[in-house]
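ok, trying the design again with the full structure, not the truncated one.
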């Protein structure tokens, strides 16, 4: 043992064959194979690192010679070298590609290398004067004329959308408003408000916000929910960029009076004088003041356009289900929910019995 211990450490390590070409080749190969297979099986990064580190240890135990501390140092050195080569061999290509793991579904084999999309800053739209709707009967739909701008933007949007006829207090889904990019440049779309004196009779249920590449389209959906009989009309504002274009879609619908009341007068609501049905949703006939019903319509619009709900139907933090009726899952603030429940309690005093 004496002569062996007196030999230079570099010579003793060389005799272990830990850094021979064969040991290095099989050590790196084993580490790389484990790093490729483990993510493909759905395991996490911790398991991947463990596999990439331990597999060259097994190779080193087989390919090295000798015993004692020097051999242990050789095994550790070979394993560390193989692990470094493996991590670099995976991370560098993944970082260049920016698509995450080469073999699995994660954002990277050892570290996150998937590039996130650059967030688009919210567009700021200029304020436009409110348009007073005409009292004339709804106009016949005309073919859509694509709005254009000096930038070459060209988008096809309907000029008029006529909703199905419905009885006062009921509601019907209107045909969707499709916005199609028929030009050669990308367009930014933002759904604005429904404007006009009769705007509360039309409720947005789906908006179109974001970018549209050429030949792509998106849709806006709404419901016709009339409060009085007769022809109803409002205007949906759609903002388009580039070019700061504001397009208005005329929305029309005809409301039929209940119980054969065709004189266009006061609708038979079942509520005492000064109160109207709330119609927060299907099946809701609680009697409220006109101001309270207008607030409910605003809440419905904010639920659609204000990102208050999660994809699974629950509300984001700070909001709760309104539950004007049991199936009402509109997201509102806790004070708004409390006001709704108070309206329910007062209904017996406001309804005609």
């Amino acid at each position: 043992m004496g002569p062996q211990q007196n030999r230079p450490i570099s010579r003793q390590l060389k005799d272990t064959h830990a850094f021979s070409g064969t040991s290095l080749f099989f050590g790196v190969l084993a580490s790389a194979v484990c790093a490729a297979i483990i993510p493909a099986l759905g395991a996490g990064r911790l398991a991947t690192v463990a596999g990439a580190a331990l597999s060259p240890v097994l190779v080193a135990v087989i390919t090295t010679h000798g015993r004692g501390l020097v051999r242990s140092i050789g095994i550790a050195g070979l394993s560390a070298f193989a692990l470094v080569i493996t991590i670099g061999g995976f991370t560098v290509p993944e970082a260049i590609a920016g698509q995450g793991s080469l073999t699995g579904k994660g954002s990277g084999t050892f570290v996150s290398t998937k590039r996130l999309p650059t967030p688009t800053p919210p567009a700021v739209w200029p304020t436009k004067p409110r348009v007073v709707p005409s009292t004339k009967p709804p106009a016949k739909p005309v073919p859509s004329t694509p709005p254009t701008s000096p930038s070459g933007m060209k988008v096809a949007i309907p000029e008029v959308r006529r909703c199905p006829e419905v009885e006062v207090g009921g509601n019907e889904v209107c045909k969707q408003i499709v916005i199609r990019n028929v030009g050669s440049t990308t367009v930014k779309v933002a759904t604005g408000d429904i404007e006009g004196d009769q705007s509360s009779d039309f409720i947005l249920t789906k908006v179109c916000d974001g970018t549209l590449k050429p030949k792509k389209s998106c849709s806006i959906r709404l419901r016709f929910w009339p409060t009085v009989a007769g022809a109803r009309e409002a205007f949906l504002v759609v903002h388009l960029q580039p070019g700061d274009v504001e397009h208005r879609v005329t929305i029309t619908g005809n409301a039929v009076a209940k119980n054969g009341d065709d004189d266009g007068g006061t609708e038979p609501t079942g509520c005492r004088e000064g109160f109207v049905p709330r119609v927060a949703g299907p099946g809701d006939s609680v009697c409220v003041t006109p101001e309270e019903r207008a607030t409910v319509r605003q809440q419905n619009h904010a639920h659609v356009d204000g990102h208050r709900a999660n994809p699974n139907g629950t509300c984001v933090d700070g909001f709760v289900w309104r539950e004007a009726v049991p199936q009402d899952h509109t997201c509102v603030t806790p004070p708004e929910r409390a006001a709704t429940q108070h309206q329910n309690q007062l209904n017996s005093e406001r309804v005609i019995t």
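Keeping the full-length input from now on. The two ends are 109 Å apart (CA to CA).
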